[in-house]
Automatic annotation (TrEMBL):
Pfam families the record matches: MORN (PF02493)
Signal peptide: 1-22
Protein name: MORN repeat-containing protein
InterPro entries from the UniProt entry: MORN (IPR003409)
Keyword Repeat: yes
Length: 192
């Protein structure tokens, strides 16, 4: 807790009193957590409205973020661990109450998904494609509740038939990349 307060203090004192970084910080602190739009799909493991904690894989000494911590949860990483961070190719398997749940197979760079990867949330929902900065970016395919979303993803966002899909990012962040704006066709509608 003291570390989080200290880091917050450093961020607040290091940022200029005016300008874009301060505005972004203020906007982030005022974030409300509305219900997702009925025409959207959101799978989020880093949304600012959800609490989480760090898990430590004691076998290899790597730490990773867990968005829904529980004392019975654990994660196992099969790849390299450099300075406590996931690095390179491997498989990350999460367990909840001893049962396997989410699984990612692919490449990490400094604890963030980067390059090609496969993420499976349960027996039916999955994403396979490119990642950048820990979110879907570039060519990829998601299958969610039996529906396929295939094409070009931007910062974890995708649009199909007017429905916005967000994976690993809050649904509201899709507005920033122009995917959920009414004039999204000017920005390039993903092809299917």
């Amino acid at each position: 807790m003291r570390l989080a307060i200290y880091i917050t203090f450093l961020l607040l004192t290091a940022l200029p009193p005016t300008g874009l970084p301060a505005q972004q910080l203020a906007a982030a602190s005022d974030t409300e957590c509305p219900w997702p739009d009925p025409d959207s799909v959101q799978i989020s493991w880093t949304a600012p409205c959800e609490e989480g904690t760090w898990l430590l894989d004691t076998e290899v000494g790597c730490r990773m973020w867990d968005w829904h911590p529980d004392p019975g949860d654990k994660a196992v990483w099969s790849g390299a661990c450099i300075h406590g961070q996931l690095e390179g190719y491997g498989v990350l398997q999460w367990y909840e109450h001893g049962q396997p749940i989410d699984r990612f197979e692919g490449t990490y760079l400094h604890n963030r998904r980067e390059g090609f990867g496969r993420y499976r949330w349960n027996d039916h929902d999955r994403y396979e494609g490119l990642y950048a900065a820990d979110v879907s970016q570039g060519t990829g395919t998601a299958v969610i509740d039996g529906e396929t979303f295939r094409g070009n993803w931007q910062r974890g966002c995708f649009v199909k038939d007017g429905r916005v899909v967000a994976i690993g990012t809050p649904r509201s962040s899709c507005d920033a990349v122009g995917l959920s704006a009414p004039d999204r066709r000017r920005h390039g509608t993903p092809s299917f």
